[in-house]
Design goal:
With about 250 residues, this protein is an alpha/beta fold. The chain has one domain (about 10-240): 3-Layer(aba) Sandwich (Rossmann fold), CATH 3.40.50.720. It is about 45% helix and about 15% strand. The protein has 10 helices and 7 strands. Strands 3-2-1-4-5-6-7 form a 7-stranded parallel sheet, with helices on both faces. The chain is globular and about 50 Å long.
Amino acid sequence: MGEAAMARTVLITGASTGIGAATARLLGPGNTVFVHYNRSERQAYEVTSDIEKAGGQAILVQADVGTEAGCTQIVSSVRQEVDSLDVLVNNAGGLIERGALADGLRWELLEAVFRINTFSAMFLTSHLVPLLRQGQDPCVVNISSIAQRHGNPSATPYGACKAALDSFTRGAAKELAPDIRVNAVAPGVIETPFHERYSTPERMKVFAENTPLKRNGQDHHIAMAVRFLVENDFITGETVDVNGGLFMR
Ligand SMILES: NC(=O)c1ccc[n+]([C@@H]2O[C@H](COP(=O)([O-])OP(=O)(O)OC[C@H]3O[C@@H](n4cnc5c(N)ncnc54)[C@H](OP(=O)(O)O)[C@@H]3O)[C@@H](O)[C@H]2O)c1
């Protein structure tokens, strides 16, 4: 276990809303947090101001992680400010849109889903290795999804891109050991702006009914799992499922 009082430098992608914002607020006090966002500028600003009120330091970084230029921009913004990074949380992502395989998937959609959820995490992890190697007990936490576990009709490409991220987690954990730990959290159904976009209230009710704990999760449930993986220095290559029992191994 790392020292409780150790100040960390943390980069969280997609920290403007939902899971990323909750993780930034939880890890903020006493630490320096790069709060990355793309479009939700006001919400990202609120996250930085909450972190500063709670005794942390926050630095805003804007970029589209769906492009190489955007990811490169994140790496150079971090490099300009610090010489080392302790924690990278690859959280930015989304489902983009639901679609049935039988209706003919658009190539553009497939590319976009993998660029935002998978390529960005792989690229950022790789290009931030030099800074992470300078960090204290450095680690990467990837946010994958329950969608990779048991199939999710209408979100099959999304499930596949998160499965790729999970596989990347294990590969990177072995390749970067013993210097850098790499883990993942696979959220179940978490009530964030994600589902306001992609799921009807009726679908959310069905998710809750099908969950053994009879409710959907909240953003802090995932943030707490990220913190656990950051603090426990004997875990690497693991994916922690946080889903109220909706998927059990
Ligand atoms: N909610 C769930 O039930 C659930 C379940 C499993 C996995 N997840 C995963 O958890 C992660 C966070 O999702 P959430 O539920 O917290 O949803 P959310 O509130 O919609 O947050 C998504 C975050 O990703 C950022 N983002 C999206 N596209 C981006 C792009 N092209 N470039 C840069 N940033 C981008 C958004 O930034 P801006 O808003 O600033 O553009 C936002 O900060 C995602 O990877 C998602 O796939 C969520």
